[in-house]
Every structure is written in structure tokens, then in C-alpha cells.
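lol ok so funny story. i was supposed to be doing the assay writeup but got distracted and ended up predicting the structure for this chain instead. priorities right. anyway since i did it might as well share w the group, maybe its usefull for someone
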Amino acid sequence: MSTLEHGREAYAERRWPDAVGQYTAADHDAELPASDLEQLATSVILTGRASEGVDILARAHLKYLADGDYPAAARCAFWTGMNLILLGEPARSTGWLGRAHRIVEDLPEPCPVEGLLFVPAGLGALYQGDGAAAAEAFTRAADLGRERGDADTAALGTLGLGQAKIMLGQLDDGLALLDEAMVAVTVGEISPVPAGIIYCAVIETCHLAFDLHRAHEWTRALDRWCVAQQNLVAFSGQCQMHRAELYRLHGAWTEAIDAAKTAQDLALRGDRMATYGGFYEQGEIHRLRGDFDAAEAAYLHAQETGFPPHPGLALLRLAQGKPDQAQSLLRQAMDGAAPDYRRRMLAARVEIELAAGDARAARAAMEELASLCASIDMPLLHALAEQSEASVLFHEGDPQAALVLVRRAWSRWLSLDAPFEAARCRALLASLCAALGDEESARLERAAARAVFSELGAAPALSGLELSALEQSVSVAPDARTAPLPTSGNDFGHAADAGPLTARETEVIQLVSAGLSNRDIAAELFISEKTVARHLSNIFTKLGLTSRAAATAYAYRHGLV
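and the output, tada:
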């Protein structure tokens, strides 16, 4: 087998460094055919050397022109322009995209890749928050891709249309389109670079849509896709930043830091799109742990990418005792944000406005957040909205109404396996119980919150809990002591210990039945091994079992696997 044939084989098997080496050696002997040059360029880009890859892609473009293959030449021009956008070279990018347009326009017959030319306009509209214009451009791209038989174009257009519909509030339609785009990726219809783009964009959009279930599913799929390819750098950093976000939510903060640092390393090696998320997620963990100097440094590194590190930096200012600065920062960030990014900052806005003393602004943000629940029916969003409304009602002097909402939010956070937010609800519940005169329930809820904060190492939350307890011990109104509570704090604390298996416990028992170790289960679900052990203990207790083998047998008997 010749060196060139070895290169083609390595490319087909996604062994990118081997493909680069073999193709490069073959190119030294004789100039590669245009299609092989294009594959060499792709291999170089995927190993993190995008600048070199762009130069090779330009060579492939010229070779296609010389061969008279104008559609392929237009495709190379388009991807050269798109890669230059990612490299931060907009002028060169504009030139290459213009060249792609000219080639297509000059062709006497319809061009298979014409739909690709609508993608940049769609992306520009998305970044500007113009969902309607984005939907129009991406619809054209998807339609042309299907008409001309170009799977990459059809999938990218479908992806963009899904993102646009979600921006416009058409959640179900948008998510269905994202799933459709992912089907094309998972069955192998899509080229490697568009496939990576679709994976990462779908996961990001799922987070913006508060769809934690899909974010989990597609992050696991992206992780497997990255691992299956030799020394893949492009998209691997973005995978790690998404893993870090999920680890953070599930209280696996050490694992979140590790994933964030891996994302930063891969960003330095070439996956530039992982820079922001890698540093932002690191900043979040440092902030939650009380290492404010390290958090500030991480947020500022994230900001160097051109994207504002909010709400994290604003919440850091609040934790530093600077509510006015926090308020100013977040208001500025939200004023210029696209609708989908604005939604992600509303809960922090409520917290910060309350701390800054602007109850009207806090209520307005809370009502905006609550109104989203009508069109975005996601447990994560409902939990944020209920927790925010409870805080506002408490501030307005209605602890009884707040109590009902915070209990709902607590239950949702538990079902989402989000221990920090669940503990924050219990801290708020302690304050509500104290305000209503139920000191024993307040003590129990405070102790439960303290245990979680201590285990996580959430020093600022722990300090705030103790300060709140001190303030409440001298400020409970005498006439509030007879106010009735819907349920006791003790019932609230033990609600999670009763009943059938939760959704997360079901996932754990299914993975145990598949033979996975605790470590493997933790990696699959983006939780810590300690959390896996706790879930297993709950499963054994609820089902009266004593071993993994017994749990496996139970799962098979009851149709869980």
C-alpha cells in the first residue's frame, strides 16, 4: 500500500495525526490530488492547527479550480472563510466567502453547495438576536441542501433553523430540529468538521433552552465521538467545557475544575472556542468555594475572548459585598444580550436586585423569568422561577406564600441532582420558617443546608447561612410564632427518602445492571463517585437490597433494562 493510500485509510478511520503524517509524506513526493489536499487540510484543522489547515485548504481550492471542479472549489472557499472567522481574521474571511459566492453565481447550473452560502448570514442574525432573519437564512440553506443532495448543508441549515426557533420562543419546534440535525450526525452522514460544529452548537442551545436532559444526552454523545478519534483537538475542548458545566450543577466540583482546566489546555492546543467556557466554569467553581481572587482571574481570562463573563462576575461582586457594582455590571450585560442569553441571567438578576435594594427591578426580572415557563416547560427553568419568586415574596413580607414555592423548587432541584441549589432552597426555607415562628423547623433546615455546603466546600454560602441564623435569632416577630406551616420542616427534609426510585436513581440502577463501576457511572452521569455511592445506598434502602447483583436482578425483573 502506498503512502497516499495509507493517508486515505487513516482519514477514513479518523486517525487524524496518522492522516496528517501520511498525506504530508505523500505530498512531498508529488502534489496531492485536490480531494486529498482537502482531507489533509481537514486532518490538520482537527488536530488543532487551524492556521496551517486553512493554507492547505486554499491549495485544495486552487487545485479544484484548475481541475474545473467549481462546486468543490466553492466548498473549499466557504470553509476557508468559516475557519478564518474562528481564527479572528474577519477581513480574510469576507474575501473567501465572497469568492465562494462569485463561483456559485457564475456557474451555469445549480450548485450542490449553494445552500452553504446562506449560513454566514444566518449566524450573523443569530448573534444580533434577530431570530426571524436567522430563520429565513437557515431555512433557505436547509432547503437547498436537501434539494441539491448536500447532507452537510442540509444539517447545518436544520441546526440553525432550530436555534432560530428557540430564540423566537418556539421551543418544541426548535428542539425537534436540533434532534433532526443530530440524527444526520450520529448515522455518519456528515463530514467531520460540520459534525463537530453541530454537536457543540446543539449542546450550547440545549443549555440556553434550559433542557438539561438533552444537554446530558448530547454531551455524552459528543464525549464518545471525541474519544473515538485519535488525538482530536478541535471540539474536544468544547466537550470538556460542557462537561464542566454539568459537573458543577451536580455538585462534582473537583471534577468540574479538572474538566475546565482540560478545556483550557485544549483551547491552547487549537480549540479556541473552548477558551471562554473553560475559564468561565473555572471561575464559577472558585466563586462558589470562596476563592475570589482566583475566580476574578478566571472570569477576566474568559472576558478576553470578547464575551462578558456574566452572570458569574456580577455574582462575584455580590459575594464580595459590592451589590451596587454587581447590579451595574449585570444590567449592562443584559441590556445588550440576545434573548436566549438574557434568559440565562434573569435568576441572578433577581438575587442581585434584591441585594441592591431595588425590589421593583427584582420583581420585574422575576416576572419575566416566570413568564418564560409558559413557553419553555423545563424543570430547570421552573426551579429557577419558583426559587426567584419565593425570594421576592419573602422580601415583600409574604413568607407563607414563599414557603410553598421554595418547597416546589427544592423538589425540582433534587430531581435534577443539583445539591447546591437544593441546599440554597433549604437555607431560604430556614429563613422562612424562622420568620413564621417555627424555630425547630428552621434549625433542621439550616442543619441540612449546612451539611451540603460543608461537603461541597461552599464557604460563602456557609458563611451566609450562619450570618442569617444570627440575624434571625434576634429578629423573629412575636406574633408570627403562631402562624401555621403547610408542613413541618422535618417532613420537608425527608421527602426525598420515600417513594419509588427517582429518575436519577433509575439511571444509576440501569448502569449498575450494565456492569459499570461507580467511577464509570460518575463519568457517564457527570456526577462524583461519592454521589453515585449515595444514590446506590438510597436504592438499596428503598428496595431492601444488599448488593449490586441483587439490584441488577431487580432491574431486569421490573423492566428497567
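Confidence is low (pLDDT under 50) at residues 476-499. Residues 373-495 form one domain.
back to the writeup now i swear
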